[in-house]
Specification:
alpha+beta; 6-stranded antiparallel sheet; two-stranded antiparallel sheet; 10 strands
């Protein structure tokens, strides 16, 4: 905008200089007509003029007229047109400059109005202009900006909801001292499988619960234990995703010595991209259902490790019976951590917005 204003200023200065140059230059004065020879008495100037106009009509007063007359009769007539440059008078230059100035002003005004700066300036003054109507045509200002603003507003709203949910869960976790109790719960779960967490290379564990912002979504309640450099608490994914999703949907615990990549895709609903992000360096898995004393599902205790057979060996996986897994689940239900988890889940309630049709 400032560039256009500067350009118009330069043009106006140039026009002004041109007008001064034209006006100050000496006009090309036509040669003075020679004395008119006469064969008789010389008529008066008025007689000659009247006689000339009678024969040739109206002419440009700046043209040079040379005629020979005798007793009021024109013997010969010669008209020398004035140079065209004489038509460029100060008034003419001023008219052209004025029209160019008006055209540039209108052009810049149109750009100013329809680029959005006009409406932003109005908003700074506390005013608002959404459209203008000229006859049957209506122009809407900043329609694209309104759509972008609406999108940003929606994204900001969901981001705020998510932040509120994380804070609510965080406050409940702190209130019920879930983190310390969770560590003891993990130790108990791994011991029930015949191992110790410290003996498993690349071991990690966390808890997933139902998300309170979106339906059919799981929320990672805690960062991975024993260490988590990414601080992964608060992540979400669909209940149709991965081992945790299958455990939640079927409400059945899963314990595997190793899961091939092809099975993660075909059986656990993961894409190749998701595997590279979440499971490419993981081989051994256990996902145990956590229930309250009434038998209601609260969440899933998820554990994995880097080496195959780290959490359970192939022989242990094959020998585990449904009754043994049920015994492990009941042990976890009676643990203080599960009781605290029940209180945390009950403390946080949300809209659970449904994205997909049921």
């Amino acid at each position: 905008m400032m560039g256009l204003l500067k350009l118009s200023g330069v043009i106006m200065c140039a026009l002004t200089l041109i007008s001064f140059g034209v006006c100050s230059s000496e006009p090309n004065t036509p040669p003075k007509p020679a004395a008119a020879p006469t064969t008789a008495s010389q008529p008066s100037a008025d007689d000659v003029t009247q006689a000339g106009l009678k024969h040739i009509g109206s002419v440009n007063p700046k043209d040079a007229i040379e005629l020979t007359a005798d007793n009021g009769s024109i013997k010969s007539l010669k008209i020398t047109p004035a140079p065209l440059r004489d038509d460029w008078t100060p008034a003419t230059i001023g008219d052209i400059s004025y029209h160019i100035f008006v055209a540039l002003t209108l052009f810049l005004a149109i750009i100013y109005i329809f680029t959005g700066r006009f409406t932003r300036d109005l908003q700074r003054l506390g005013l608002k202009m959404e459209s203008a109507k000229f006859g049957v045509a209506e122009f809407k200002f900043n329609a694209g900006e309104e759509q972008r603003a609406a999108k940003l507003t929606a994204e900001a709203a969901f981001a705020q909801y998510r932040a509120d949910e994380k804070k609510a869960f965080g406050d409940a976790i702190e209130k019920h001292e879930l983190v310390e109790k969770f560590k003891l719960l993990v130790d108990k779960a791994v011991e029930s499988l015949g191992k110790k967490p410290s003996d498993i290379d690349g071991f990690r564990a966390t808890i997933h619960v139902l998300d309170q912002l979106f339906a059919d979504t799981l929320f990672q309640l805690l960062s991975y234990y024993p260490e988590d450099v990414t601080q992964s608490a608060g992540r979400t994914h669909s209940v149709r995703f991965g081992i945790v999703g299958k455990c939640w949907r079927e409400q059945k615990s899963i314990v595997r010595a190793e899961i091939p990549t092809t099975e993660l895709v075909s059986f656990f609903g993961m894409t190749a991209e998701q595997i590279s992000l979440h499971g490419s360096k993981r081989s051994s898995y256990a996902c145990l259902v956590l229930r309250n004393r009434a038998g209601q599902q609260l969440g899933c205790l998820y554990m994995d490790a880097t080496a195959p057979g780290s959490i359970v060996s192939r022989a242990q996986e094959q020998s585990l019976t449904p009754a043994q897994i049920e015994t492990i689940e009941k042990t976890l239900t009676a643990h203080d951590a599960t009781t605290a988890l029940s209180k945390v889940v009950a403390a946080v309630q949300g809209p659970q917005i449904r994205i997909h049709d049921a």
